[in-house]
């Protein structure tokens, strides 16, 4: 039987003729490099990922193209590129929807994280209890999920991000939360001020590649129409500008948060289609984020996710400025003297310690007064 590889764009299985270095996908026409056979420990890690992929996509089955034309939309049932898994929430008509992704990279000792699943569970609880998100409008993706369509492979993540924004209309509130690994890649199209793209690492990133900030922006930022608001809460390394938004809020020497225009050198506009996109990330592009050890039961969470939830719960109705200041203080003060208050604090039942130096970042598609604008999801 001829060896197989996955299309790096749409995730379709491709037959690899002997001796070739690249193969062209017959569905989306993307050229995918053929990976060399791994060795040693790396071979075991990649083999684990391949096994998971094999359980999700039957060898030889053609997958629908991910990128839809402006006239297409994602729908449950149906056929072709418009089909959604039956297990995905039916979000059309739901004014609040969320995509929560927690990747543990289990089985890869070099990359494994301990707190990511806890992160999405806590975020889901907060969205439902504090901001009234309906349970049936929240899509949770973790590596431990028994539903193969909710396992966060690159192909599934791309489809889920499309689900998040598909059909959003005036007054809708969307949330994207990602807890996992993030990396930097050398910028190849000249749209990064520092010369590096930021990227999210799906579960199968070693085999299928990462998701660059260019694609994240094109998928969940640019389609946002008037009156639609997206909050991306990203707990990864190098996540400061992961949405490629043009405005970055940075703390000044006087202690106040100020907006900086980070429009691309190429002049390319990466804003919305009339909506508002806001990202709150765990650290700047040059920094790393960490798992944190919770003393009660030795349970881990992401430092950013914990500090975010604590800031929200400590001061309901807070502004974006006070939210950032609260997150920053929590991280710098080793979790703070007191835990998360109220029922969500009871849900956590934990005291946290931090050993990292990271600065939460706020980016937006347009500037606003962070000391007056109330934080609402």
TrEMBL record:
**What GO cellular component entries does it have?**
cytoplasm
Species in which this protein is naturally found: Eleusine coracana subsp. coracana
Q: Can you name this protein? A: Peptidase C14 caspase domain-containing protein
For this protein's source organism, the top of the classification is: Eukaryota, Viridiplantae, Streptophyta, Embryophyta, Tracheophyta
Return the annotated region ranges for Disordered.
63-89
Any one GO BP annotation for this protein: proteolysis
Q: Which residues form the Peptidase C14 caspase domain?
A: 95-364
- GO molecular-function term, one example from the UniProt record: cysteine-type endopeptidase activity
According to the lineage, what is the superkingdom?
Eukaryota
Name the protein family.
Belongs to the peptidase C14B family.
